[in-house]
Design goal:
Blueprint: H1 2-26, E1 43-44, H2 46-49, E2 70-83, E3 90-97, E4 118-124, E5 140-141, E6 145-157, E7 184-190
Antiparallel strand pairs: 1-2, 2-6, 3-5, 3-7, 4-6
Length: about 190
């Protein structure tokens, strides 16, 4: 019986050593796997993820004295790369940002000491028509590989000048002078 107990004890002891060895190696490290799966047909060109559009200088005299008149049209683009059109064939682009206090379809100025009486209007370069903030563009057809979508940004008058009221008094300008700073983000929707 002692001999049987010795074999049993030896077997249990060796099993315990294997379990200890396995447990000692199992807790030495950890690997975390992260990622995502999306249904995007393209990737956004890294050059347009954060870009700056220099609107240049315009004079107040470049605007007609009507609300909605524009001046200083500047082109800019959104580029998509590595496009696959096997499942999704179209795309629309929507711009959003701080809206003007007087016209929620155009970008208002952001930051301190900004010019007054103007906003930034975005137009679809294909049609020349205004693309209101928070409104998706009409669909663009995707081509395989690279796609570039063109837009223009313009200063837009939001306040008209007032005529001189008393004789000899100067008109009150609707547009001030100063810095212009506006920020827009864009979303791409695949269809």
């Amino acid at each position: 019986m002692f001999q049987k107990m010795g074999k049993y004890t030896a077997l249990c002891a060796s099993s315990l050593l294997v379990m200890i060895a396995v447990n000692a190696h199992a807790a030495d490290g950890q690997v975390e796997f992260t990622g995502s799966i999306n249904d995007n047909a393209c990737t956004i060109n890294s050059g347009v993820l954060k870009t700056s559009v220099d609107m240049g200088q315009v004079r107040i005299a470049d605007f007609a004295n009507t609300v909605g008149s524009t001046a200083g049209s500047t082109p800019f683009s959104v580029s998509l790369e590595n496009c696959s059109t096997s499942t999704l064939k179209n795309v629309s682009i929507k711009f959003s940002g701080q809206q003007s206090a007087t016209d929620d379809t155009v970008l208002g100025m952001s930051g301190a000491n900004q010019v007054t009486g103007v906003g930034i209007q975005i137009n679809d370069a294909r049609t020349g028509s205004k693309l209101p903030l928070n409104t998706a563009s009409t669909d663009y057809v995707l081509r395989p590989q690279t796609n570039t979508f063109d837009f223009t940004a313009s200063y837009v008058r939001l306040v008209a000048d007032t005529a001189a009221v008393p004789e000899g008094a100067a008109a009150v300008r609707g547009i001030g002078t100063g810095k212009v700073n506006a920020l827009a983000s864009f979303d791409v929707t695949y269809k």
